[in-house]
Amino acid sequence: MEVNRLNSILPLVISTAKKAGEFIRSERKTFSSDKIEIKGLNDLVSYVDKKSEEIIVKDLQTIFPEAGFIVEENTRSEKKEYNWIVDPLDGTTNFIHGIPCYAVSIALEHKGQIILGVVYEVSRDECFYAVTNGGAFLNEKRIKVTTHETLKDCLIATGFPIYNFERINPYLKTLEYLMRNTHGIRRIGAAAADLCYLACGRVDAFFEYNLNSWDVAAGALIVKEAGGKICDFKKGDDWLFGKELIAANSKVFEQFSSEIISNFRQNA
């Protein structure tokens, strides 16, 4: 896709993310626990997720009708050469419990590459966005990852496993190492926000498994455009659909990724 078209689409996608975010913000004021549905073990959803997705899909069909959809709540499912990858409410558990970090995540994928990404963190009214080779931004200001060179100077973000506990031992081993060798660990509860916080320098690195493409697609592009690096748990590129991701600033990426990869390889 031409850069000019990507740049013309971007403001429309931002507007769509904010529209869905405004709906989510409004519904949070009157939301009650009897509106929760269970999709699987510790996997929660509500009408807010589904309605937000409907709002987003409707707009995206108008913005770029040639594209297909990969969406969390299955309100639309149709893969094409270009695909919108959508998480209508990343951090649903936070939202349900009234904890203020949850986001709308929208990405555009072409042949396995993310070429546009928008993450709108609802509770702080923060919109992160990027297009390929265009830099990364937060509310119109350019952002960059940190330049810390050693893990001892770094703050780490992660997501705790909520299902598939077969890899819990290497995960806990990694946590112990990071507890002893960094400024600390934060579990924010929304992978899209984790990645954006890495992109703007609030944390220095992030890792998690049990991820889906809609959790990471937009945020990963924003990290890359902010100067960060990304890989899977084998130091490869299968992070979009491979359900695992390591991300960090370029200075500590080798040290950080090597520690995680070593722990998970030993416990495979």
Describe this structure in words.
The protein is of the alpha+beta class. It folds into two domains: 3-143, Fructose-1,6-Bisphosphatase, subunit A, domain 1 (Fructose-1,6-Bisphosphatase, Chain A, domain 1, 2-Layer Sandwich); 151-266, D-Maltodextrin-Binding Protein, domain 2 (3-Layer(aba) Sandwich), CATH 3.40.190.80. It contains seven helices and 14 strands. The protein has helices at residues 3-28, 47-63, 92-97, 168-181, 191-199, 213-225, 253-266, and strands spanning 36-40, 43-46, 68-71, 82-90, 103-110, 113-121, 126-131, 136-138, 141-143, 155-158, 184-186, 205-209, 228-231, 244-249. The strands form three sheets. The chain has a seven-stranded mixed β-sheet with strand order 3-4-5-6-7-8-9, sandwiched between helices. The protein has a five-stranded mixed β-sheet with strand order 11-10-12-14-13, with helices on both faces. The chain has a two-stranded antiparallel sheet with strand order 1-2. Helix 4 (168-181) runs antiparallel to helix 7. The longest helix is centred in the first third of the chain and has 26 residues, at 3-28. The radius of gyration is 18 Å and the shape is globular. The protein starts with a helix and ends with a helix. The mean pLDDT is 94.
